[in-house]
Amino acid sequence: MAAEQIPNLNTLRNTRGGGRGRGRGLGGPSGPSFEEEKATKDKIVQQTDQDASVSRMSAVEAGYLDDPFASYFVSNGWQRKLPIINRGTYVRTKSIDKLVESFLLHHPYDMKQIISLGAGSDTRPFRLKSRSLQPSMIYHELDFPSNTAQKVALYKRCPQLYEFLDSPLTSARDQVFESEDSFHGTWYHLHPIDLRTLHPLVQPPESFKHIETGLPTLIISECCLCYLEPKSADDVVNYFLRRHFPPTTALGLVVYEPIEPNDAFGKVMVSNLASRGISLPSLRKYGSTDAQTERMGAYGFEDSAGADMNAMWELDTQEKEKERVAALEMMDEVEEWRLLAGHYCVFWGCKEGEKEDKEEEEKQAWKLWRDSVQ
C-alpha cells in the first residue's frame, strides 16, 4: 500500500463534474469471488503509487522541492502537473518532513527508529541519509510484497540508490537481499507485508525481528491507514503500541489523510475515487480534525496536535518561503486550493516511555514536537 499516492491532489482535479461509483450487482456464479475482488482492489491501490511519484517529480522539476532521488522512482515518463497539485505535494511533503526532522534532531546522536507504513516509492529514507540528519537511524519500510519486489529490483539495478543502503559492514551484497521482495541492511529494512495481517494478538512476521523494541520510534502513515477498515487500521497501530514495543519505549505516530467526506466537495472527492475503484473506509470514522484528535487519545498518546493543509500553509510556512513558492508558478485557482487543502490533514501523537532513571527522563524524544505547538 503506497504512502505517497491516492488520495492525491491530482485525483481531485475533476471535482466539478462529479463521478459515478461502481455499482454492485447481486452476484452469481459468473461474478468474481471475494478473493478475486479483493486482489483487484489491492492492485488498484498499489498502482496509484506512480501517481504520487509523478506528482513528486513534477514538484521537484518546478522548483518546489529538492529531491535528487525522485527521478529514480518514476517509470514510463511523466508530465508536469498543474500549480495547485505542485503546491499540494509541497505542503504535504514539508509538513511531514518537519515532524520527522524534529524527532531526529533532538539528541541527534542517540539512535532513533522510523517505521513507514505502506511506504511505496517514498524517497524520504534516501533524503534523510544523504543529508546526514541522523547519524544513528534505523529506517523500516512496510508494503505489499508486489511493491517491495519492485523496489528491490530497482535497488539492484541502480547503484546510485544502493550506495546509500550498503555499508562497509555488509560483507556480501547478497546477504541483505534475503529474497526478491525484501532487504535488510545495517540501517535500512524493507518488509513485504499485507498490513491487514497485523493484530495485537497475532504472531508478527519473521522479518520484524529487525525492528528494535527499545529505540525511540516514529511510525508514519502517509495516506496508508485510510485504505483500511477502521478496525484494521486501529489493529495495525495497536500492534506496535501494545505488542511489539514495551511501555518503556517512546513512540510517536504521524498520519496524513483526507478529511471532511460529508460536505459537498468531500462527497465529490469520494465519488471520484470510487469511480477508479478506490475506497477509503477509515475516512468514515476519522473524517474530521476532531475525530483525528480523539483517535490519538484512544491510542494512548499523551500529546497530540494537527491541522488541515490550509493551516499548514498559512500558519506553519514562513513568509519568505511562501513568497518563493508563489513566485515559481502563477496559480489562479486560489479558492480551489483552499478547498482542496481543507480536505487533507496531518496529525501526530506521541508518548514518552516509562523511565526509571531521571537522566533518561530528561531525554524526551518528543520535546521539539511539543515545543512547536506551544
- How is the largest sheet built, in terms of strand order? 3-4-2-1-5-6-8-7
Described by strand count, sense and barrel closure, the largest sheet is: 8 strands, mixed
- The SS-based structural class is alpha/beta
Total E-strand runs: 8
> Could you list the spans in which at least 5 consecutive residues all have pLDDT below 50?
1-29, 168-172
SSE pattern, N- to C-terminal: HHHEHEHHHEEEHEHHEHHHEHH
Helix tally equals 15
Mean pLDDT: 84
Estimated share of beta-strand residues:
5-15%
Helix content: 40-55%
The first-to-last residue Cα distance is 34 Å
Overall form = globular
**Computed Rg:** 20 Å
What descriptors fit this protein?
single chain; 374 residues; alpha/beta; eight-stranded mixed sheet; 15 helices; 41% helix
Q: Explain this structure to me?
A:
- This protein has 374 residues and is of the alpha/beta class.
- The chain is 41% helix and 13% strand.
- The chain is built from 15 helices and 8 strands.
- It has helices at 34-47, 49-61, 83-105, 124-130, 145-157, 159-165, 173-176, 230-244, 264-275, 289-298, 309-314, 319-328, 334-341, 358-362, 367-372, and strands spanning 112-117, 137-143, 183-184, 188-192, 217-222, 251-258, 303-308, 344-351.
- Strands 3-4-2-1-5-6-8-7 form an 8-stranded mixed sheet, sandwiched between helices.
- Helix 2 packs across helix 3 (83-105).
- The radius of gyration is 20 Å and the shape is globular.
- The chain starts with 33 loop residues before the first helix and ends with a helix.
- Residues 1-29 and 168-172 have low confidence and may be disordered.
